[in-house]
Design goal:
By secondary structure, this protein is an all-alpha fold. It has 14 helices and no strands. The protein folds into two domains: 3-85, no CATH class; 97-317, Up-down Bundle (Heme Oxygenase, Chain A). The chain has helices spanning 3-12, 15-23, 34-51, 68-85, 94-106, 111-119, 123-137, 140-148, 153-166, 176-193, 204-218, 223-250, 255-284, 288-317. This is Iron-containing redox enzyme family protein.
C-alpha cells in the first residue's frame, strides 16, 4: 500500500482495512503494528493449512482466490516483502549465483543462537523453540510435494529424492512428520507440566516464518521463490539440528525424542548440496527472470527467518 492509501485506510477504512494498513504500511509508512500483523498472518496461515487438508476434510477445504480479504492480505504482505527483497544485492548472472547463495546461506546459520541451544538453554526453552518449529516442520513433506509439480529432468529427480527421505524411505515410523509429532508430544507435555503457556508463540514473526513457505507453495506462480526459500533452509539447517541434539542430550531427553533432530543433521546437509547442484544450477541458467525469482525467494526467507530466530530467542529467555 502506498503512504496515502495507508493513511486513508487507517482513518476511514473498515476494521479489516485498518488492520491491513497498520500491519503492512509499506516503505513510506511507520513500523508495522504487531497486533494487526499477528491477526492477519494467523488468518493467512489458517487458510493455507486448511487448503492443504487431507481427503477426509474435503468439504472444508477453501477455494483459492475466492476470499477477497485473504487476497488482500497476500498482496499487501508479499508485496511489502518483495519490495524489501528487491533492495538486496542479487546475483545478476548464473555464474554469480552459486557463490552468492553459499555466502547468503552461511550468514543465515545463527551460530550464537545455536550455541545457546547446545550449551545453555533449559528444556522448557528448547521445547518452546521446538513447538514454534512445528508450524513449518509438520508440513514440510507437503511443501516438498508441492514444489515437485511441473519440475523436469534432474530437478524433479532431486526433489523426488528429498521427498523420499521425508517419507522415511518407505518406512512408516521413519516418516519425518511422524517422527516430528512423536517428539512434539514429549515437548508439549514438558511445557504443560512446567506451566509454560504455549500461547506465547502467537507472534507475527512466527506466523510470517510459517506462512511464507505455504504461500510460495500454494501459489504456483511463486514456485521459483519456494525453491529458493526451501533451498536456503536446507543449506543452513544442519547446525541448528545439531545444536538441538546437543542441547537435548545435555538435558537428558530420551533418545527416541531426539531421533527427529539427529536424522536431520546429516540429511539436511546432503539435501543442501543436492539442491544446489540438482535444482538451482540448472534453473538459474535458463533466464535472468528465473534467476531473479529464485534469488528473491532466498533473500526473503533469510530475512523473515532471521527476524523469527531473534524473536523466538527473546521469548525463550523469558521462560527461564
Amino acid at each position: 500500500m502506498n503512504a496515502a492509501l495507508t493513511e486513508s485506510a487507517r482513518t476511514t477504512g473498515t476494521g479489516f482495512e485498518r488492520d491491513l494498513a497498520l500491519a503492512f504500511p509499506g516503505p513510506a509508512g511507520t513500523a508495522p503494528d504487531e497486533e494487526a500483523r499477528l491477526r492477519l498472518l494467523r488468518r493467512l496461515h489458517a487458510h493455507y493449512v486448511a487448503y492443504l487438508a487431507g481427503p477426509a476434510d474435503f468439504a472444508a477445504i477453501p477455494r483459492l482466490n475466492t476470499d477477497p480479504e485473504i487476497g488482500a492480505i497476500e498482496r499487501a504482505w508479499l508485496g511489502a516483502e518483495e519490495e524489501i527483497a528487491g533492495r538486496a544485492e542479487l546475483p545478476r548472472t548464473a555464474a554469480e549465483f552459486h557463490p552468492w547463495f553459499l555466502r547468503t546461506a552461511a550468514d543465515h546459520v545463527q551460530p550464537e543462537f545455536n550455541a545457546y541451544l547446545a550449551e545453555e538453554a533449559t528444556l522448557a526453552e528448547i521445547a518452546l523453540f521446538f513447538m514454534a518449529e512445528e508450524l513449518v516442520d509438520s508440513r514440510f513433506d507437503d511443501l516438498m510435494a508441492l514444489v515437485q509439480i511441473g519440475a523436469e529432468g534432474r530437478t524433479k529427480l532431486t526433489i523426488a529424492e528429498n521427498y523420499w527421505d521425508e517419507m522415511g524411505e518407505g518406512v512408516l515410523d521413519r516418516m519425518h512428520t511422524r517422527m516430528f509429532e512423536h517428539s512434539a508430544v514429549y515437548m508439549r507435555a514438558h511445557l504443560d507440566g512446567a506451566g509454560v503457556d504455549r500461547g506465547r508463540l502467537h507472534l507475527p514473526e512466527v506466523y510470517a516464518n510459517a506462512s511464507l513457505l505455504l504461500a510460495y507453495g500454494v501459489h504456483r506462480h511463486l514456485n521459483p521463490r519456494a525453491l529458493g526459500a526451501m533451498g536456503v533452509l536446507e543449506q543452513s539447517a544442519s547446525p541448528r539440528f545439531q545444536a538441538m541434539v546437543d542441547g537435548c542430550a545435555r538435558l537428558g531427553v530420551p533418545e527416541d525424542v531426539i531421533a527427529y533432530q539427529r536424522i536431520h543433521v546429516h540429511v539436511d546437509a546432503d539435501h543442501g548440496a543436492e539442491w544446489t547442484e540438482g535444482v538451482f544450477l540448472p534453473l538459474v541458467a535458463r533466464s535472468p527472470e528465473l534467476l531473479r525469482e529464485i534469488s528473491l525467494g532466498v533473500v526473503t526467507r533469510v530475512r523473515i527467518a532471521d527476524a523469527y530466530y531473534r524473536r523466538i530467542w527473546e521469548l525463550m529467555r523469558g521462560v527461564r
